[in-house]
Design brief:
alpha/beta, Nucleotidyltransferase, domain 5, seven-stranded mixed β-sheet, binds adenosine-5'-diphosphate, binds 5-O-phosphono-D-xylulose
Length: about 475
Protein backbone atom coordinates (compact mmCIF):
# COMPACT_ATOMS: atom_id res chain seq x y z
CA UNK A 1 0.00 0.00 0.00
CA UNK A 2 1.45 3.41 -0.96
CA UNK A 3 1.90 6.17 1.62
CA UNK A 4 -1.19 8.38 1.96
CA UNK A 5 -1.02 11.67 0.04
CA UNK A 6 -3.61 13.58 2.07
CA UNK A 7 -5.45 15.66 2.92
CA UNK A 8 -7.44 13.43 5.28
CA UNK A 9 -11.22 13.48 5.63
CA UNK A 10 -13.51 11.64 8.04
CA UNK A 11 -16.74 9.86 7.13
CA UNK A 12 -19.14 8.71 9.83
CA UNK A 13 -21.98 6.19 9.67
CA UNK A 14 -24.22 6.50 12.72
CA UNK A 15 -26.49 3.56 11.98
CA UNK A 16 -29.05 1.66 14.03
CA UNK A 17 -26.57 -0.58 15.81
CA UNK A 18 -23.31 1.37 15.95
CA UNK A 19 -21.20 4.38 14.99
CA UNK A 20 -18.44 3.75 12.46
CA UNK A 21 -15.77 6.31 11.58
CA UNK A 22 -13.27 6.13 8.73
CA UNK A 23 -10.30 8.42 8.22
CA UNK A 24 -9.76 8.50 4.45
CA UNK A 25 -7.05 9.89 2.20
CA UNK A 26 -9.04 12.33 0.06
CA UNK A 27 -6.67 11.89 -2.89
CA UNK A 28 -6.89 8.10 -3.20
CA UNK A 29 -9.75 6.87 -1.00
CA UNK A 30 -7.33 4.80 1.05
CA UNK A 31 -8.75 4.17 4.53
CA UNK A 32 -5.97 5.13 6.92
CA UNK A 33 -7.80 4.52 10.21
CA UNK A 34 -11.13 3.21 11.38
CA UNK A 35 -13.19 2.90 14.54
CA UNK A 36 -16.53 1.42 15.55
CA UNK A 37 -18.54 1.55 18.77
CA UNK A 38 -22.01 0.15 19.48
CA UNK A 39 -25.07 1.94 20.80
CA UNK A 40 -28.23 0.35 22.09
CA UNK A 41 -31.82 0.13 20.86
CA UNK A 42 -34.61 -0.63 23.32
CA UNK A 43 -36.46 -3.92 22.82
CA UNK A 44 -40.19 -4.12 23.56
CA UNK A 45 -43.07 -2.42 21.78
CA UNK A 46 -41.11 0.61 20.56
CA UNK A 47 -37.59 1.11 19.18
CA UNK A 48 -35.73 3.96 20.84
CA UNK A 49 -32.12 5.09 21.35
CA UNK A 50 -30.60 7.82 23.48
CA UNK A 51 -29.01 10.43 21.15
CA UNK A 52 -26.37 11.05 23.85
CA UNK A 53 -25.30 7.41 23.32
CA UNK A 54 -24.87 8.08 19.58
CA UNK A 55 -22.54 10.94 20.46
CA UNK A 56 -20.54 8.83 22.92
CA UNK A 57 -20.25 6.03 20.34
CA UNK A 58 -19.02 8.60 17.79
CA UNK A 59 -16.43 9.89 20.27
CA UNK A 60 -15.30 6.28 20.94
CA UNK A 61 -15.08 5.49 17.22
CA UNK A 62 -13.03 8.66 16.62
CA UNK A 63 -10.73 7.85 19.54
CA UNK A 64 -10.04 4.43 17.95
CA UNK A 65 -8.89 6.28 14.80
CA UNK A 66 -6.00 7.69 16.88
CA UNK A 67 -3.78 10.50 15.60
CA UNK A 68 -5.13 10.30 12.05
CA UNK A 69 -8.44 11.78 13.21
CA UNK A 70 -6.55 14.82 14.50
CA UNK A 71 -5.18 15.47 11.01
CA UNK A 72 -8.57 15.59 9.25
CA UNK A 73 -9.46 18.70 7.26
CA UNK A 74 -13.15 17.87 6.77
CA UNK A 75 -15.81 15.58 8.23
CA UNK A 76 -19.31 14.46 7.35
CA UNK A 77 -21.96 12.38 9.13
CA UNK A 78 -24.32 9.89 7.49
CA UNK A 79 -27.03 8.60 9.80
CA UNK A 80 -29.98 6.22 10.07
CA UNK A 81 -32.98 7.93 8.46
CA UNK A 82 -36.30 9.13 9.88
CA UNK A 83 -35.62 9.03 13.66
CA UNK A 84 -37.38 11.71 15.70
CA UNK A 85 -34.92 13.59 17.93
CA UNK A 86 -36.59 16.11 20.25
CA UNK A 87 -34.36 18.64 22.03
CA UNK A 88 -35.11 21.07 24.85
CA UNK A 89 -34.04 24.72 24.99
CA UNK A 90 -30.55 23.68 26.12
CA UNK A 91 -30.09 21.27 23.20
CA UNK A 92 -30.54 18.17 25.39
CA UNK A 93 -32.85 15.30 24.35
CA UNK A 94 -36.34 15.65 25.85
CA UNK A 95 -36.73 11.86 25.60
CA UNK A 96 -35.03 9.03 23.67
CA UNK A 97 -35.26 9.23 19.88
CA UNK A 98 -38.04 7.18 18.23
CA UNK A 99 -36.31 5.20 15.46
CA UNK A 100 -37.23 4.35 11.86
CA UNK A 101 -38.23 0.78 12.85
CA UNK A 102 -40.60 1.83 15.64
CA UNK A 103 -44.05 0.92 14.33
CA UNK A 104 -46.10 2.36 17.21
CA UNK A 105 -47.06 5.26 14.95
CA UNK A 106 -48.86 3.04 12.39
CA UNK A 107 -52.31 4.40 13.42
CA UNK A 108 -51.00 7.98 13.02
CA UNK A 109 -49.69 7.01 9.56
CA UNK A 110 -53.18 5.82 8.51
CA UNK A 111 -54.77 8.96 9.91
CA UNK A 112 -52.36 11.38 8.24
CA UNK A 113 -52.75 9.65 4.88
CA UNK A 114 -56.53 10.08 5.13
CA UNK A 115 -56.34 13.69 6.38
CA UNK A 116 -54.43 14.81 3.31
CA UNK A 117 -56.75 13.12 0.81
CA UNK A 118 -55.20 9.67 0.38
CA UNK A 119 -51.97 8.00 -0.82
CA UNK A 120 -51.98 9.56 -4.31
CA UNK A 121 -52.05 13.08 -2.87
CA UNK A 122 -49.13 12.27 -0.56
CA UNK A 123 -47.14 10.66 -3.36
CA UNK A 124 -47.63 13.63 -5.67
CA UNK A 125 -46.82 16.28 -3.08
CA UNK A 126 -44.24 14.60 -0.84
CA UNK A 127 -42.94 11.86 -3.16
CA UNK A 128 -43.86 9.23 -0.56
CA UNK A 129 -46.83 7.76 1.24
CA UNK A 130 -45.73 7.98 4.89
CA UNK A 131 -45.31 4.54 6.48
CA UNK A 132 -44.81 4.40 10.26
CA UNK A 133 -41.09 4.94 9.63
CA UNK A 134 -41.61 8.55 8.57
CA UNK A 135 -40.82 11.23 11.15
CA UNK A 136 -44.15 12.98 10.65
CA UNK A 137 -46.02 9.95 12.04
CA UNK A 138 -43.70 9.82 15.05
CA UNK A 139 -44.28 13.49 15.87
CA UNK A 140 -48.05 12.87 15.62
CA UNK A 141 -47.64 9.86 17.97
CA UNK A 142 -45.70 11.99 20.45
CA UNK A 143 -48.30 14.77 20.46
CA UNK A 144 -51.05 12.22 21.14
CA UNK A 145 -49.28 9.98 23.63
CA UNK A 146 -46.78 12.26 25.39
CA UNK A 147 -48.08 15.82 25.00
CA UNK A 148 -45.74 16.98 27.77
CA UNK A 149 -42.70 15.83 25.73
CA UNK A 150 -44.01 17.56 22.60
CA UNK A 151 -44.63 20.76 24.60
CA UNK A 152 -41.08 20.67 26.02
CA UNK A 153 -39.54 20.35 22.54
CA UNK A 154 -37.62 23.42 21.36
CA UNK A 155 -35.93 21.76 18.36
CA UNK A 156 -36.65 18.73 16.16
CA UNK A 157 -33.78 16.91 14.45
CA UNK A 158 -33.00 13.77 12.47
CA UNK A 159 -30.17 11.55 13.80
CA UNK A 160 -27.55 12.95 11.41
CA UNK A 161 -28.67 16.55 12.06
CA UNK A 162 -28.24 15.99 15.79
CA UNK A 163 -24.64 14.78 15.44
CA UNK A 164 -23.75 17.39 12.81
CA UNK A 165 -25.25 20.06 15.09
CA UNK A 166 -23.07 18.89 17.99
CA UNK A 167 -20.01 19.29 15.74
CA UNK A 168 -20.90 22.74 14.39
CA UNK A 169 -23.36 24.33 16.82
CA UNK A 170 -25.59 25.04 13.78
CA UNK A 171 -29.12 23.81 13.01
CA UNK A 172 -28.81 22.21 9.57
CA UNK A 173 -30.00 19.24 7.56
CA UNK A 174 -29.89 18.18 3.90
CA UNK A 175 -32.51 17.40 1.25
CA UNK A 176 -31.79 13.64 1.29
CA UNK A 177 -32.57 13.07 4.95
CA UNK A 178 -35.28 15.78 4.99
CA UNK A 179 -37.12 13.84 2.27
CA UNK A 180 -37.80 11.05 4.80
CA UNK A 181 -39.62 13.27 7.26
CA UNK A 182 -43.02 13.67 5.58
CA UNK A 183 -42.92 17.44 6.12
CA UNK A 184 -40.41 18.20 3.33
CA UNK A 185 -42.26 18.25 -0.01
CA UNK A 186 -40.37 16.82 -2.96
CA UNK A 187 -42.71 18.78 -5.25
CA UNK A 188 -41.42 22.13 -3.95
CA UNK A 189 -38.05 21.22 -2.47
CA UNK A 190 -38.90 22.80 0.89
CA UNK A 191 -40.80 22.39 4.15
CA UNK A 192 -44.57 22.12 3.67
CA UNK A 193 -46.13 24.76 5.94
CA UNK A 194 -49.64 23.33 5.64
CA UNK A 195 -48.41 19.94 6.85
CA UNK A 196 -46.49 21.52 9.72
CA UNK A 197 -49.64 23.37 10.76
CA UNK A 198 -51.71 20.18 10.52
CA UNK A 199 -49.38 18.34 12.92
CA UNK A 200 -48.76 21.35 15.18
CA UNK A 201 -45.02 21.64 14.56
CA UNK A 202 -43.64 25.19 14.45
CA UNK A 203 -41.29 25.67 11.44
CA UNK A 204 -38.71 27.44 13.62
CA UNK A 205 -38.11 24.15 15.46
CA UNK A 206 -36.66 22.66 12.27
CA UNK A 207 -33.11 22.92 10.90
CA UNK A 208 -32.21 24.80 7.72
CA UNK A 209 -32.06 22.56 4.62
CA UNK A 210 -28.63 23.05 3.02
CA UNK A 211 -28.23 22.96 -0.73
CA UNK A 212 -26.09 20.12 -2.14
CA UNK A 213 -22.43 21.00 -1.72
CA UNK A 214 -23.08 23.64 0.96
CA UNK A 215 -21.10 23.34 4.22
CA UNK A 216 -22.89 22.80 7.54
CA UNK A 217 -20.14 24.77 9.33
CA UNK A 218 -16.84 24.07 11.03
CA UNK A 219 -15.87 21.95 14.03
CA UNK A 220 -16.31 23.78 17.33
CA UNK A 221 -13.48 23.96 19.89
CA UNK A 222 -13.23 21.26 22.57
CA UNK A 223 -14.25 18.28 20.43
CA UNK A 224 -12.23 15.16 19.48
CA UNK A 225 -11.60 16.62 16.00
CA UNK A 226 -9.45 19.51 14.76
CA UNK A 227 -11.13 22.82 15.59
CA UNK A 228 -12.11 24.67 12.42
CA UNK A 229 -12.20 21.55 10.20
CA UNK A 230 -14.94 21.79 7.57
CA UNK A 231 -18.21 19.96 8.30
CA UNK A 232 -20.19 18.85 5.24
CA UNK A 233 -23.98 18.66 5.21
CA UNK A 234 -24.14 14.93 5.96
CA UNK A 235 -27.21 12.96 4.89
CA UNK A 236 -29.29 9.83 5.50
CA UNK A 237 -27.40 6.55 5.47
CA UNK A 238 -28.87 5.27 2.21
CA UNK A 239 -28.13 8.57 0.46
CA UNK A 240 -24.59 8.41 1.84
CA UNK A 241 -24.12 4.87 0.49
CA UNK A 242 -25.36 6.05 -2.92
CA UNK A 243 -22.64 8.74 -2.81
CA UNK A 244 -20.11 6.20 -1.56
CA UNK A 245 -20.75 3.97 -4.57
CA UNK A 246 -20.62 6.90 -7.00
CA UNK A 247 -23.91 5.56 -8.36
CA UNK A 248 -25.08 6.45 -11.85
CA UNK A 249 -28.83 6.55 -12.63
CA UNK A 250 -30.38 3.11 -12.98
CA UNK A 251 -27.64 1.11 -11.19
CA UNK A 252 -29.56 -1.02 -8.66
CA UNK A 253 -28.35 -1.48 -5.08
CA UNK A 254 -29.46 -4.00 -2.47
CA UNK A 255 -28.30 -3.27 1.07
CA UNK A 256 -28.41 -5.94 3.77
CA UNK A 257 -28.16 -4.37 7.24
CA UNK A 258 -30.50 -3.87 10.18
CA UNK A 259 -32.83 -2.63 7.46
CA UNK A 260 -32.92 -4.17 4.01
CA UNK A 261 -33.05 -1.55 1.27
CA UNK A 262 -33.23 -1.52 -2.52
CA UNK A 263 -32.70 1.66 -4.48
CA UNK A 264 -31.28 3.40 -7.53
CA UNK A 265 -30.48 7.01 -8.37
CA UNK A 266 -33.08 8.56 -10.66
CA UNK A 267 -33.17 11.81 -12.57
CA UNK A 268 -36.99 11.83 -12.29
CA UNK A 269 -38.92 12.66 -9.12
CA UNK A 270 -40.61 9.45 -7.88
CA UNK A 271 -44.33 9.55 -7.00
CA UNK A 272 -45.44 5.97 -6.23
CA UNK A 273 -49.06 6.03 -4.95
CA UNK A 274 -48.84 2.40 -3.72
CA UNK A 275 -46.37 3.53 -1.08
CA UNK A 276 -43.93 0.68 -1.78
CA UNK A 277 -41.34 3.05 -3.19
CA UNK A 278 -40.34 6.02 -1.05
CA UNK A 279 -39.53 9.00 -3.26
CA UNK A 280 -36.45 10.21 -1.44
CA UNK A 281 -34.16 12.96 -2.66
CA UNK A 282 -30.51 12.04 -2.95
CA UNK A 283 -27.71 14.14 -1.48
CA UNK A 284 -26.73 15.72 -4.82
CA UNK A 285 -29.77 17.03 -6.68
CA UNK A 286 -31.29 13.87 -8.12
CA UNK A 287 -33.69 11.37 -6.56
CA UNK A 288 -33.37 8.07 -4.73
CA UNK A 289 -36.47 5.88 -5.16
CA UNK A 290 -36.07 3.30 -2.37
CA UNK A 291 -37.94 0.48 -0.67
CA UNK A 292 -37.05 -0.61 2.85
CA UNK A 293 -37.79 -3.69 4.93
CA UNK A 294 -37.70 -3.72 8.73
CA UNK A 295 -36.61 -7.36 8.97
CA UNK A 296 -33.30 -8.16 7.42
CA UNK A 297 -30.01 -9.32 9.00
CA UNK A 298 -31.19 -9.15 12.62
CA UNK A 299 -34.34 -11.16 11.85
CA UNK A 300 -32.45 -13.89 9.98
CA UNK A 301 -29.75 -14.01 12.68
CA UNK A 302 -32.55 -14.38 15.25
CA UNK A 303 -34.01 -17.35 13.36
CA UNK A 304 -30.53 -18.93 13.21
CA UNK A 305 -30.18 -18.43 16.97
CA UNK A 306 -33.60 -19.98 17.62
CA UNK A 307 -32.54 -22.99 15.57
CA UNK A 308 -29.09 -23.06 17.27
CA UNK A 309 -27.48 -22.85 13.82
CA UNK A 310 -24.59 -20.78 12.46
CA UNK A 311 -25.95 -18.19 10.01
CA UNK A 312 -24.28 -20.01 7.11
CA UNK A 313 -25.74 -23.45 7.97
CA UNK A 314 -28.48 -23.32 5.32
CA UNK A 315 -29.78 -26.35 3.42
CA UNK A 316 -31.69 -26.46 0.14
CA UNK A 317 -34.87 -28.41 -0.56
CA UNK A 318 -38.16 -28.72 1.27
CA UNK A 319 -41.18 -26.46 0.98
CA UNK A 320 -40.93 -24.37 4.15
CA UNK A 321 -41.80 -20.68 3.82
CA UNK A 322 -40.77 -18.23 6.53
CA UNK A 323 -42.02 -14.65 6.46
CA UNK A 324 -39.54 -13.10 8.93
CA UNK A 325 -41.71 -10.17 10.04
CA UNK A 326 -40.45 -10.20 13.64
CA UNK A 327 -40.69 -6.41 13.97
CA UNK A 328 -43.90 -5.93 11.98
CA UNK A 329 -43.08 -4.99 8.37
CA UNK A 330 -42.88 -1.93 6.15
CA UNK A 331 -42.44 -3.61 2.73
CA UNK A 332 -45.04 -4.97 2.35
CA UNK A 333 -46.75 -2.51 4.67
CA UNK A 334 -47.84 -4.83 7.50
CA UNK A 335 -46.93 -2.97 10.71
CA UNK A 336 -48.90 -5.33 12.99
CA UNK A 337 -47.57 -8.57 11.44
CA UNK A 338 -45.34 -11.08 13.23
CA UNK A 339 -43.18 -13.88 11.80
CA UNK A 340 -44.96 -16.71 10.03
CA UNK A 341 -43.71 -20.23 9.27
CA UNK A 342 -45.60 -22.61 6.98
CA UNK A 343 -44.93 -25.67 4.83
CA UNK A 344 -43.34 -27.73 7.64
CA UNK A 345 -43.18 -31.51 7.11
CA UNK A 346 -41.70 -34.37 9.17
CA UNK A 347 -38.61 -34.34 6.99
CA UNK A 348 -38.05 -30.55 7.02
CA UNK A 349 -34.58 -29.81 8.42
CA UNK A 350 -33.51 -26.89 10.58
CA UNK A 351 -31.17 -25.76 7.78
CA UNK A 352 -34.11 -25.60 5.37
CA UNK A 353 -36.06 -23.44 7.84
CA UNK A 354 -33.06 -21.11 8.06
CA UNK A 355 -32.85 -20.95 4.25
CA UNK A 356 -36.57 -20.12 4.22
CA UNK A 357 -35.86 -17.11 6.49
CA UNK A 358 -33.25 -15.81 4.00
CA UNK A 359 -35.69 -16.47 1.15
CA UNK A 360 -38.49 -14.54 2.89
CA UNK A 361 -36.25 -11.54 3.63
CA UNK A 362 -34.75 -11.42 0.12
CA UNK A 363 -38.07 -12.03 -1.65
CA UNK A 364 -39.59 -8.89 -0.11
CA UNK A 365 -36.62 -6.78 -1.24
CA UNK A 366 -36.49 -8.15 -4.77
CA UNK A 367 -40.20 -7.73 -5.37
CA UNK A 368 -39.86 -4.11 -4.26
CA UNK A 369 -36.77 -3.67 -6.48
CA UNK A 370 -38.93 -4.35 -9.53
CA UNK A 371 -41.11 -1.42 -8.46
CA UNK A 372 -38.13 0.81 -7.72
CA UNK A 373 -36.84 0.24 -11.25
CA UNK A 374 -40.22 0.09 -13.05
CA UNK A 375 -41.95 3.31 -13.91
CA UNK A 376 -39.92 5.43 -11.51
CA UNK A 377 -37.45 6.47 -14.13
CA UNK A 378 -34.49 4.94 -12.38
CA UNK A 379 -32.66 4.15 -15.62
CA UNK A 380 -30.76 6.79 -17.56
CA UNK A 381 -33.45 6.70 -20.23
CA UNK A 382 -36.23 6.24 -17.69
CA UNK A 383 -36.28 2.45 -17.81
CA UNK A 384 -34.87 -0.44 -15.82
CA UNK A 385 -31.59 -2.03 -16.84
CA UNK A 386 -31.99 -5.79 -16.23
CA UNK A 387 -28.41 -6.54 -17.24
CA UNK A 388 -26.84 -4.12 -14.74
CA UNK A 389 -25.30 -6.06 -11.83
CA UNK A 390 -27.04 -5.71 -8.52
CA UNK A 391 -24.58 -4.04 -6.14
CA UNK A 392 -24.77 -5.92 -2.84
CA UNK A 393 -23.70 -3.92 0.23
CA UNK A 394 -24.21 -3.76 4.03
CA UNK A 395 -22.99 -6.19 6.69
CA UNK A 396 -24.99 -9.08 5.18
CA UNK A 397 -23.10 -8.76 1.89
CA UNK A 398 -20.17 -10.46 3.67
CA UNK A 399 -22.26 -13.62 4.03
CA UNK A 400 -22.33 -16.41 1.44
CA UNK A 401 -25.90 -17.45 2.31
CA UNK A 402 -27.15 -13.89 1.75
CA UNK A 403 -25.29 -13.52 -1.56
CA UNK A 404 -26.39 -16.88 -2.92
CA UNK A 405 -30.01 -16.26 -1.93
CA UNK A 406 -29.97 -12.94 -3.76
CA UNK A 407 -28.47 -14.55 -6.87
CA UNK A 408 -30.95 -17.45 -6.86
CA UNK A 409 -34.09 -15.36 -6.27
CA UNK A 410 -33.14 -12.44 -8.53
CA UNK A 411 -31.64 -14.21 -11.54
CA UNK A 412 -29.38 -11.13 -11.86
CA UNK A 413 -25.62 -10.76 -11.91
CA UNK A 414 -24.39 -9.55 -8.52
CA UNK A 415 -21.36 -7.46 -7.63
CA UNK A 416 -20.05 -7.17 -4.08
CA UNK A 417 -17.91 -4.05 -3.57
CA UNK A 418 -14.71 -4.81 -1.70
CA UNK A 419 -15.11 -1.60 0.32
CA UNK A 420 -17.19 -2.56 3.32
CA UNK A 421 -18.37 0.64 4.96
CA UNK A 422 -20.07 2.39 2.06
CA UNK A 423 -22.16 4.75 4.20
CA UNK A 424 -19.09 6.03 6.01
CA UNK A 425 -17.15 6.13 2.72
CA UNK A 426 -19.99 8.12 1.12
CA UNK A 427 -19.88 10.58 4.00
CA UNK A 428 -16.09 10.78 3.51
CA UNK A 429 -16.62 11.43 -0.21
CA UNK A 430 -19.04 14.23 0.69
CA UNK A 431 -16.43 15.72 3.04
CA UNK A 432 -13.75 15.38 0.34
CA UNK A 433 -16.07 16.94 -2.22
CA UNK A 434 -16.56 19.96 0.03
CA UNK A 435 -12.86 20.27 0.72
CA UNK A 436 -11.71 19.80 -2.89
CA UNK A 437 -14.73 21.55 -4.48
CA UNK A 438 -15.66 18.41 -6.42
CA UNK A 439 -18.81 16.37 -6.96
CA UNK A 440 -18.77 13.69 -4.20
CA UNK A 441 -19.93 10.96 -6.62
CA UNK A 442 -16.98 11.79 -8.89
CA UNK A 443 -14.69 11.56 -5.88
CA UNK A 444 -16.11 8.11 -4.99
CA UNK A 445 -15.69 6.87 -8.58
CA UNK A 446 -12.07 8.02 -8.54
CA UNK A 447 -11.63 6.06 -5.29
CA UNK A 448 -13.01 2.93 -7.04
CA UNK A 449 -15.35 2.13 -4.15
CA UNK A 450 -17.79 -0.03 -6.16
CA UNK A 451 -15.09 -2.40 -7.40
CA UNK A 452 -15.26 -5.98 -6.21
CA UNK A 453 -15.94 -9.56 -7.25
CA UNK A 454 -18.70 -10.06 -9.81
CA UNK A 455 -20.96 -13.14 -9.81
CA UNK A 456 -22.78 -14.25 -12.97
CA UNK A 457 -26.54 -14.51 -13.16
CA UNK A 458 -28.03 -17.92 -12.34
CA UNK A 459 -31.52 -19.05 -13.45
CA UNK A 460 -34.17 -17.57 -11.16
CA UNK A 461 -35.67 -20.04 -8.66
CA UNK A 462 -39.25 -19.46 -9.82
CA UNK A 463 -40.68 -22.24 -7.64
CA UNK A 464 -39.48 -20.57 -4.43
CA UNK A 465 -40.50 -17.09 -5.59
CA UNK A 466 -44.01 -18.37 -6.35
CA UNK A 467 -44.28 -20.29 -3.07
CA UNK A 468 -43.31 -17.25 -0.99
CA UNK A 469 -45.61 -14.97 -2.99
CA UNK A 470 -48.54 -17.37 -2.58
CA UNK A 471 -47.97 -17.72 1.16
CA UNK A 472 -47.80 -13.95 1.56
CA UNK A 473 -51.01 -13.47 -0.42
CA UNK A 474 -52.83 -16.30 1.38
CA UNK A 475 -51.88 -15.04 4.85
CA UNK A 476 -52.88 -11.44 4.19
CA UNK A 477 -55.79 -11.32 6.67
CA UNK A 478 -53.71 -12.91 9.41
CA UNK A 479 -50.77 -10.57 8.81
CA UNK A 480 -52.99 -7.49 9.04
CA UNK A 481 -54.57 -8.41 12.40
CA UNK A 482 -53.69 -6.11 15.28
N1 LIG B 1 -19.79 -12.19 7.86
C1 LIG B 1 -21.09 -11.91 7.89
N2 LIG B 1 -21.99 -12.68 7.24
C2 LIG B 1 -23.31 -12.38 7.24
N3 LIG B 1 -23.82 -11.32 7.88
C3 LIG B 1 -22.99 -10.53 8.55
C4 LIG B 1 -21.59 -10.76 8.59
N4 LIG B 1 -21.03 -9.78 9.33
C5 LIG B 1 -22.03 -8.99 9.75
N5 LIG B 1 -23.21 -9.42 9.29
C6 LIG B 1 -24.54 -8.84 9.49
O1 LIG B 1 -24.45 -7.47 9.28
C7 LIG B 1 -25.39 -6.80 10.12
C8 LIG B 1 -24.94 -5.39 10.35
O2 LIG B 1 -24.87 -4.77 9.09
P1 LIG B 1 -24.64 -3.21 8.96
O3 LIG B 1 -24.79 -2.87 7.51
O4 LIG B 1 -23.38 -2.84 9.65
O5 LIG B 1 -25.89 -2.72 9.81
P2 LIG B 1 -26.41 -1.28 10.21
O6 LIG B 1 -25.64 -0.30 9.39
O7 LIG B 1 -27.84 -1.36 9.89
O8 LIG B 1 -26.19 -1.15 11.69
C9 LIG B 1 -25.50 -7.63 11.38
O9 LIG B 1 -26.83 -7.63 11.86
C10 LIG B 1 -25.05 -9.03 10.91
O10 LIG B 1 -26.14 -9.91 10.82
O1 LIG C 1 -35.57 3.60 7.25
C1 LIG C 1 -34.67 3.35 6.48
C2 LIG C 1 -34.73 3.78 5.05
O2 LIG C 1 -35.90 4.44 4.71
C3 LIG C 1 -33.48 2.58 6.99
O3 LIG C 1 -32.66 2.16 5.95
C4 LIG C 1 -32.74 3.40 8.02
O4 LIG C 1 -32.07 4.45 7.37
C5 LIG C 1 -31.85 2.53 8.90
O5 LIG C 1 -30.71 2.09 8.30
P1 LIG C 1 -29.66 1.00 8.85
O6 LIG C 1 -29.33 1.28 10.24
O7 LIG C 1 -30.24 -0.35 8.61
O8 LIG C 1 -28.46 1.20 7.96
Amino acid sequence: MSAPEGPFVIGVDSSTQSAKALVVDAATGQVVARGQAPHTVTPGPGRESDPEEWWQALEDALAQCGRAAQQASAVSVGGQQHGLVTLDGGGRPVRPAMLWNDVRSAPQSDRLIGQLGGPAVWAERFGSVPAAAFTVTKWAWLCENEPQSAAATAAVRLPHDYLTGRLTGEATTDRGDASGTGWWASSTGGYDEEMLELIGLAPQLLPRVLTPGEAAGTVRPGLPLPTGALVAAGTGDNMAAALGLGLRPGQPVLSLGTSGTVYAVSTRRPTDPTGTVAGFADARGDWLPLACTLNCTLAVDRVAALLSLHREAVEGGGEAVLLPFLDGERTPNLPYASGLLSGLRHDTTAGQVLQAAYDGAVFALLRALDEVLDGQGAGADGGADDSAPLLLIGGGAKGTAWRETVRRLSGRPVQVPRAEELVALGAAAQAAGLLLEEDPATVARRWGTAEGPAYDAVPRDEATVTRVADTLGGADTLLRQR
